[in-house]
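Course assignment 3, question 2. Fill in each field.
Student: A.L.
Task: Predict the tertiary structure for the chain below.
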Amino acid sequence: MADSLEVIEARENADNKEYFAEKVKSMPLLIEWACEEIRDDKEIVLEAVKKDAGALEFATNKLKDDKDVLLAAVSQAGWTGCYASERLRNDKDVILTAVKNDGQILYYASEKLRDNKDVVLAAVSNKPIILKYASFRLRNDKDVALVAVNKGKKKAFEFIGDSLKKDEDIIKLLEE
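Answer field:
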């Protein structure tokens, strides 16, 4: 984070678009101190997010609903998907990109995407215990369960469907 002198300078320039267009190139989190109009400027926010995905936190809701901005953020830090608008929490491209980087983001995905096999497989490949947020249908899917248990062993086993808890292939994975 910026030191106090930089924050003071940023606050003094809160409505100076040129100042922030340049500053976010080296100190992207300074965007926090920009006025709403600048935090709503797609070009400036994209520059900030490309340098530090966490800058997405300070973007306006309009830009948190912009697929280009979200993809730029979640491509480098999947956890920033938590800032996605409701609409983009239901966008397969955004959520799939996010869970590949941080499976935990499945928690923020729409119910529809928690029931999407591609999304859930990517999420449990990255973070097996996140299976607990998958749909019941996919918690009972053998392919999904095998990936989760192979990566997460007993922690993931707890969340697979009851119908799979006696499956011989899954039991073998637990014994390895």
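Instructor remarks: The chain has a mean pLDDT of 96. DSSP finds eleven helices and no strands in the chain.
Grade: pending
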